Amino acid sequence: RSLSTTARQSLRIGLIPADGIGKEVIPAARAAIEALGSDIPKPQFVDLVAGWETFTRTGVALPQDTVDVLRNECDCALFGSVSSPSRKVVGYSSPIVALRKELDLYANIRPVVSVSAEVGQKASVDLIVVRENTECLYVKQEQLTDGPNGKEARATRLITEHASRRIGQMAFKLANARPRKHLTIIHKSNVLSVTDGLFRETVRSVPTLPGVDGKYDGVTIAEQLVDSAVYRLFREPEIFDVMVAPNLYGDIISDAAAALVGSLGLIPSINAGDSFVMGEPVHGSAPDIEGKGIANPLASIRSAALMLRHLGYTKGADRLDTAVDQVIREGKTLTPDLKGTSTTTEVLEAVLKKI
Amino acid sequence: RSLSTTARQSLRIGLIPADGIGKEVIPAARAAIEALGSDIPKPQFVDLVAGWETFTRTGVALPQDTVDVLRNECDCALFGSVSSPSRKVVGYSSPIVALRKELDLYANIRPVVSVSAEVGQKASVDLIVVRENTECLYVKQEQLTDGPNGKEARATRLITEHASRRIGQMAFKLANARPRKHLTIIHKSNVLSVTDGLFRETVRSVPTLPGVDGKYDGVTIAEQLVDSAVYRLFREPEIFDVMVAPNLYGDIISDAAAALVGSLGLIPSINAGDSFVMGEPVHGSAPDIEGKGIANPLASIRSAALMLRHLGYTKGADRLDTAVDQVIREGKTLTPDLKGTSTTTEVLEAVLKKI
Ligand SMILES: CC(C)[C@H](C(=O)O)[C@@H](O)C(=O)O
Ligand SMILES: CC(C)[C@H](C(=O)O)[C@@H](O)C(=O)O
């Protein structure tokens, strides 16, 4: 299957709301997509389950059926958010981490952009975190042993040339398409000289790969140690344009960047592979506000936009993004995380009116 | 050797300025300590070398002599900062990471406190990061192999019950001594259920250890996933009091916290073990401003204060801290990182006048 959009009569979208506010924001994203009419092929939604609640009901966090349907019957998907047990539970393992691996969604792309007060004005924060999505400590190879002084636990952090190269290629491609064309490689090779050394060198070598042919000559390359990157994100976010990072650093850095623009409730992402893409709001399942109807749907709607853009439906994606920007700019209909008093439904309706 | 202060005629302090601005700020800390007069035993300073420059000169980043002198002839030490090579260099390995391990300085304690406008007023940020200092990915067990798709690098992340327990004890002790008595455990056990699971459970079990006897009953315990902790540090730092974290998360979180109070140039730390303590400013070697005479000496002076406090010299420590606070509050003599125009020497002199 390819991502080519030419022959599509309909767009089959898997919906996996999963836990907590995922069940409130994914339906909102669905409604926003439906409002796009003929700008995209007719959407067909497929409801799928995964998550902590699924686990407590069935003993499996990510049913094989969900993976199979996504793989064989869907063009793309939207994932909500998962809750985690507050203690280790035998047999439970994060379904989002597993899904990324099962579908080889190797790039987690997280644009963090503040909405400027006026249309056309420069955003104060405007960056993209490109997070490697399949390895690092997320390979979850862990062992527990008994040592002379008690228990000892070990986890493996895997960094491969293969995965670093493809995430590097994605990052260069994204950087090259932006006005500033600036790429910052995040690592900690002053401590992890072998693993992060491999990541850094492999990403750096992308412009010299066969077939690249000077395509990325305009991209400037910088590096930041992960600790320093978090510090500088807070102090001078304008130095960043595209940031590329191994999995765990990317996880942390995207949350740090999110804090700059007001709320995690605004930050979208896609998990992208060569033949599938899955939108996912960066926020969690937020058990504290679950069921109250006040979850911010904007990150999910923006994730739908990112997903459509990745599939080539630029016009539909633009309409969603513009509508979201207008609602934020007007500032009248916002959820409590943005200091508003509106509900999920009210925000969705404000967006639908703008579409 | 014990940390008991009773019989000390003199205080033997190893000085390892290492690289970059370390060579400018450690002498300032020395001068501040010398100004304390009879509040502390007569200080005897021992000049020692380590770092990238030492490596380029001698081929060794941490000479055995430096370790031996610290171990056998010093009561405590001050470490500056190290530069890292911009590419992997065979044989080079961070001397600060090695020193922490060699001297078993298992707790890296990093208080991040904003100076209130008025004396006695509540600080807007007032927290302590307690970072495990000997294991996690910092064990630096890395391998490079050839796989079917190119190179593969693996690093081991080690978390032991032993190290988690002693850092947990340190964190509970520090939390218990503070007015809020609130401890937040930082982890990522939704992904690393075995390693971070062990860290979390072991820290949680500290109050039930034999001999603790209800001592920590007043301490409230919370948890935050590391990504979320960074986000919340920016959004609502007031929710944190003492944070305890495995090594790498602690590294990142202390930089995030530092960003809240204006400059890394203000943040001190100690590397503490059961029989040795080493002060260390959290900032790096700052090659961009090296040799310009404008490095902020306040983090190093505060690190000296923390070190003295840890050794039991409360009066000397208080005098240093109060002097630093006064200089910051007055706002007249500050280095460029704090938007001032003063030099390292001018700031030092302002501090010396207040001591
Ligand atoms: C839920 C968790 C496993 C996940 C991650 O760490 O990747 C989340 O924090 C994210 O950023 O999508
Ligand atoms: C220089 C580096 C090895 C060190 C670390 O990561 O511990 C530094 O960032 C710190 O925080 O002291």
Summarize it.
The structure is a homodimer of 355-residue chains. The first copy, chain A, has 355 residues and is an alpha/beta fold.
Characterization of this structure:
Chains A, B: InterPro entries: IsoCit/isopropylmalate_DH_CS (IPR019818), IsoPropMal-DH-like_dom (IPR024084). Chains A, B: Residues 12-351 form the Isopropylmalate dehydrogenase-like domain. Chains A, B: One of its GO terms (molecular function) is magnesium ion binding. Chains A, B: Pfam families: Iso_dh. Two copies of one chain form a homodimer. Chain A is of the alpha/beta class. The first copy, chain A, folds into two domains: 1-105 and 284-355, Isopropylmalate Dehydrogenase (3-Layer(aba) Sandwich); 126-260, Isopropylmalate Dehydrogenase, CATH 3.40.718.10. In chain A, 37% of the residues lie in helices and 21% in strands. Chain A has helices spanning 22-34, 52-58, 64-73, 95-102, 161-176, 195-204, 226-235, 247-260, 298-311, 314-330, 344-354, and strands at residues 10-18, 42-47, 76-81, 107-113, 126-132, 142-147, 150-160, 182-187, 220-225, 242-245, 270-272, 277-279. The model of chain A has no long low-confidence stretch (mean pLDDT 95). The structure holds 3-isopropylmalic acid (2 copies). One 3-isopropylmalic acid sits between chains B (82, 94, 96-97, 251, 282) and A (190-191, 227).
